[in-house]
Write a structure and sequence with these properties.
This protein is an alpha+beta fold and 94 residues long. The protein has one domain. It is built from three helices and two strands. A hairpin with a 5-residue loop joins β1 and β2.
Amino acid sequence: MAITHLTGSGQITIPVELRRKLGMDTGSAMYWSVDGQGRLIGRPIPQTLDELYGSFPARPGVRTEGDFDDLIEEAFDDGMARMIAEDRAEHGSE
């Protein structure tokens, strides 16, 4: 457990112990919601295909950029929809 403070620009520092436990690093994204009891819930967003872009070379002669962009968008949308549904089921938030 840790206590943090909200800055004037709306930022919260996540203590290093928690970041390590969650596998978070600079640039990690978080999903935030409020449950039915007014509690703020923050969960890290798992690594996306977007973060993997360029990690693997394309096959010679195959154009994949547009296809990859479509896969990124679809995976992100599916992941966010799943996280929101799980959050609503778990916490009853709107």
